[in-house]
Automatic annotation (TrEMBL):
<dbReference type="InterPro" id="IPR045155">
    <property type="entry name" value="Beta-lactam_cat"/>
</dbReference>
<dbReference type="GO" id="GO:0008800">
    <property type="term" value="F:beta-lactamase activity"/>
</dbReference>
<dbReference type="GO" id="GO:0030655">
    <property type="term" value="P:beta-lactam antibiotic catabolic process"/>
</dbReference>
<comment type="similarity">
    <text>Belongs to the class-A beta-lactamase family.</text>
</comment>
<protein>
    <recommendedName>
        <fullName>beta-lactamase</fullName>
        <ecNumber>3.5.2.6</ecNumber>
    </recommendedName>
</protein>
<dbReference type="GO" id="GO:0046677">
    <property type="term" value="P:response to antibiotic"/>
</dbReference>
<dbReference type="Pfam" id="PF13354">
    <property type="entry name" value="Beta-lactamase2"/>
</dbReference>
<feature type="domain" description="Beta-lactamase class A catalytic">
    <location>
        <begin position="42"/>
        <end position="256"/>
    </location>
</feature>
<dbReference type="InterPro" id="IPR012338">
    <property type="entry name" value="Beta-lactam/transpept-like"/>
</dbReference>
<dbReference type="InterPro" id="IPR000871">
    <property type="entry name" value="Beta-lactam_class-A"/>
</dbReference>
<feature type="signal peptide">
    <location>
        <begin position="1"/>
        <end position="20"/>
    </location>
</feature>
<keyword id="KW-0732">Signal</keyword>
């Protein structure tokens, strides 16, 4: 009888703790932004100082699109940490690696050499697909997925070019994840817990030099450091950001799917939602900061196709 009462008490305590960690006010605001969206929306936000979080479908599976490149980077760094690859080694480019989407690396000539470190930088900073597929081939999707599994990621996986994942690739594309797990990965990197403290620092530096800053990052003041990764395919838009804010770091991930609006214009409904959520979070966590994006900024945005 005592054991049953003890179990009930533990259950009540755990429920109360979970409730205390939920930011109900912010959750309500996020739901208000997402409720009229023409498609599926997933959002996870956590204040890393207080531990409080807010979520909308945070554990639902979504396409990663280019956000899977952060996982590829982790697998790459793990191999470097183990001495199987060298961050400064030269790689030889072959025409068979070329992925024709206007990437910088796609313009490299056959048999040209380039440092692995530069390929890794292009994969994250420019979201270069040729670089990303090259590094995935070098590390292998199976190795990356094994690293994810060993580090407590139940859902995030590389699907493309991985044997046995053809069916799930047909549903989610290159990679699959949840908003919560994207935030977990960014937090691990920020806290020096992904691969090693040194590898995490290198990854964080790459993630904080993103060229594609026209959506979520555009709603955060330029004097605030952000680490981020973006992704999109026809019916999905996504972005994960960790902001080093004055009142405490916060991390958030927004992913959409089954969008009715499949355009690639700046006013795509998914891009608008990402910007609106990011603006809400900045002013929610930093209410005394009076910064707003200056008039005329649109003409200077990086809005080319990713």
């Amino acid at each position: 009888m005592k054991s049953i009462k003890y179990l009930i008490l533990l259950l009540l305590l755990s429920t109360a703790t979970a409730f205390a960690q939920t930011d109900s006010k912010l959750t309500k605001k996020l739901n208000a932004l997402a409720k009229d969206f023409h498609g599926q929306v997933g959002i996870y936000v956590q204040n890393l100082k207080t531990g409080k979080s807010a979520e909308v479908n945070a554990d639902t599976l979504f396409p990663t699109a280019s956000m899977i490149k952060v996982s590829i980077m982790c697998g790459l760094m793990d191999k470097i940490q183990k001495g199987e690859l060298d961050y400064h080694q030269n790689l030889i480019f072959k025409d068979s690696l070329r992925y024709d989407t206007g990437d910088i690396l796609g313009s490299v000539k056959n048999n040209d050499t380039i440092a692995l470190s530069k390929v890794a930088m292009l994969m994250i900073t420019m979201s270069d697909n040729t670089a990303s597929l090259w590094l995935q081939k070098l590390v292998t999707g199976e190795y990356i997925n094994n690293w994810l599994q060993q580090n407590g990621f139940d859902n995030m996986r590389v699907n493309s070019r991985v044997k046995g994942r053809e069916r799930i690739r047909s549903i989610y594309g290159w990679g699959v994840t949840t908003p919560r797990e994207m935030c977990k990965l960014f937090t691990m990197i920020r806290e020096g817990k992904a691969v090693s403290p040194a590898a995490s620092e290198r990854m964080y530096r790459n993630l904080s030099h993103i060229y594609w800053d026209d959506n979520a990052i555009s709603q955060v003041p330029p004097y605030i450091q952000t680490a981020s990764k973006q992704g999109f395919v026809d019916a999905s838009r996504s972005e994960t950001v960790l902001a080093s804010a004055p009142h405490g770091n916060y991390v958030f991930s927004i992913i959409t799917n089954h969008q009715k609006d499949t355009s690639y214009k700046h006013d795509n409904e998914g891009f608008i939602l990402i910007r609106n959520v990011s603006a809400l979070l900045w002013h929610y966590f930093e209410p005394d900061d009076k910064w707003h994006q200056p008039a005329g900024y649109d003409k200077f945005m990086n809005v080319d196709s990713e």
